[in-house]
Amino acid sequence: MTPTIIIVENNRTVLDTISQQVQSLGYRVVGALNSAEATATFLRERPIALAIIDVILSDTESGYALADSLVARDPALKVLLISGYSPEDQAKYRTYKNAYPTLQKPFRIREGRRLIQDIIESVNC
User: Fold this and answer.
1) Distance (Å, rounded) from C-alpha 67 to C-alpha 90?
2) What CATH number did the domain enclosing 40 receive?
3) Distances from the Cα of 27 to the Cαs of 60, 65, 117, in angstroms?
4) What is the pTM of this model?
5) Count of domains in the chain?
6) Per-residue confidence of the chain (125 residues) as pLDDT tens digits?
């Protein structure tokens, strides 16, 4: 069975681009533009192997909080955060409930390919 990856990104163009790139790696991809849509999609599309989530979804939506919420629903879920913001800007959204690997945007799919594969294949990530 092909692993499913959910990608949560508030910019439709960026979401579509990342989705196409990840899909080209052979994964089944579902997308969401915000936390509510992501949660509904996650519940509908399970099992999901990996959630790739933008750190800052809006002024009030934190990718960290969404990741924590999804992991609370499925502790086996793996998470990769992505962000175009500096680590300092990201810090005000951090929840510290869980530690998640982060990939800085923009990135080339070659950069993300190994990280995505490693996260999905890992037992304790």
Assistant:
1) 14
2) 3.40.50.2300
3) 30, 25, 10
4) 0.87
5) 1
6) 899 999 999 999 999 999 999 999 999 999 999 999 999 999 999 999 999 999 989 878 889 999 999 999 999 999 999 987 666 665 555 665 667 888 887 777 777 788 888 898 885 44
